[in-house]
Amino acid sequence: MTGPQRLAAAGAALSHQREWFAGMRAEAERGRPLALVNADAPQEIFRAMDVPYVVNQWWASIISAKRMSGRYLEALRGRGLPDDIEQYSALPLAEALAPRADDAPWGGLPRPSLVLAECTGDSMRRMFGLWESELGVPFLPLESAVGENVPTEWWTLMRHDWESAVGPARIDLLEQELRALVPRLEELTGAAYDPDRLAEVMALSNEQAEWNRRTRDLLARAPRCPVPVNDVIPAVMIPQWHRGTRWATSAAENLYREVSDLVEKDHAVVGDERRRLMWIGRGLWFDMNFYRSFEESHGAVFVWSMYLALAADAYARYGEDPLRALAARFCAFRDQMYTPPWSVEWYVKEAKEHRVDGVVHLISPDSRSSWFTTHALEAAGVPVLEIRADNADGRSLDPSALHRQVADWIRALP
Questions:
Q1: Sequence-ordered list of residues with C-beta below 8 angstroms from that of 218, at least 6 positions apart, any chain
Q2: 69 contacts 91 by C-beta, under 8 angstroms
Q3: d(C-alpha 291, C-alpha 230), whole Å
Q4: Is residue 57 within 8 Å of 91, Cβ to Cβ?
Q5: What region does 86 belong to: left with phi over 0, alpha with psi -120 to 50, or beta?
Q6: How many of the other CB atoms lie within 10 Å of CB of 322?
């Protein structure tokens, strides 16, 4: 049997997000503090303080999905700022600097009370610094440390043995930064930090990660892919931006139960599944229908994206000290996605477990490790097609040309 066209979990998550954003926007306009936080920064601090936050890259995905990235990025260029560096992170800033328009996505993002980001390079520090210098929004930076030792199979260690996997020096640094950050957040927002509340947030987010791990493993084992990846992404990632809430944990459980039911009923996205594909890279927000383009014509289905896999392996941290566990959650976060051999060993493991026939590898201009990822996969016998474009910048890619390129590659797979 072929499966449903839309997961109930995806529809519920999208509806929840729209309702939440409308309420948050109204409260911000009445003066409630709002934080804009990068995806690889510890948002759980704000959850524990009951301070609403918007994830910078989530808002960039909304701008891109509405096909408005070009307009905002060109406005950035018009101010003498680069529009071709870290576009995924720059889009919310570009919108804030552009003239307000009636057709802004979802009514537009309210002016945040502060921005928080981990500085993984000079461009990121400069970009977020513009929020403060150009718009008067305080910028709170966190450092990005690296480790000398790389754990073997980090995904087996991170839940409980994160001290040895990450190394105490890196965790010490971020923990100290978070302890220094708390009074500054209290000053800027008027909210109070409660360590007991953070412990509750961490417990709920760990439970959410366990449901995501069950879903990922279930999809890897399923004889045929039962769900479209462009439904899995919102069903997973919208609850991820609400980590530490009961709604998010319930949403992760509901996704697992829905997928489990589909697998039990032998549903499949493609009845005649002939090619199983893996998408490495950020979501192609301006053309999410791309992922389903090759089902009827080639019997090809995307069975993997990093979003569910990261939600399964990269977040759970158990420990008695919730602030230190939170530091351990984020101080090596980018390593898991982008730093070899952390990232490449994980991608190979995921490719094998999901039995993929090939990988489509989206390489953004800011990528620093793409060669190692492609090399490791090909060395493991997995064919790779590299696509060079920015995932959120609709100007960087011709969708028709991309479809033809991928279709030709699928036909040529051994």
A1: 256, 259, 260, 263
A2: yes
A3: 7
A4: no
A5: left
A6: 20
Locate 55 and state its tokens: 């994830």
Write the pLDDT tens digit of every residue in 76-90: 999 999 988 889 999
CA distance 280 to 360: 6
Q: CA distances (Å), 179 to each of 39, 50, 241, 286, 346, in order?
A: 20, 17, 22, 38, 31
Q: Are strands 300-304 and 358-363 parallel, antiparallel or unpaired?
A: unpaired
C-alpha distance from residue 376 to each of 95, 121, 297, 304, 365 (Å): 38, 25, 29, 17, 20
Every domain of the chain and the residues it spans = 8-146
At 5 the pLDDT is 66
The pTM of the full predicted model, rounded to 2 decimals, is 0.95
Tokens of 105: 């996505």
Query: From residue 252, how far is each of 18, 149, 214, 355 by CA, in Å?
Result: 18, 33, 10, 24
Helix (H) or strand (E) holding 268: none
Q: What is the pLDDT of residues 323-368, one digit of tens each?
A: 999 999 999 999 999 999 999 999 999 999 999 999 999 998 878 7
Packing angle, helices 229-240 and 195-221, rounded to 10: 170
Structure tokens at 182: 């708390």
The C-alpha atoms of residue 239 and residue 394 are separated, in whole angstroms, by 26
| Closest to 154 measured CA to CA, from 2, 353, 335 | 335
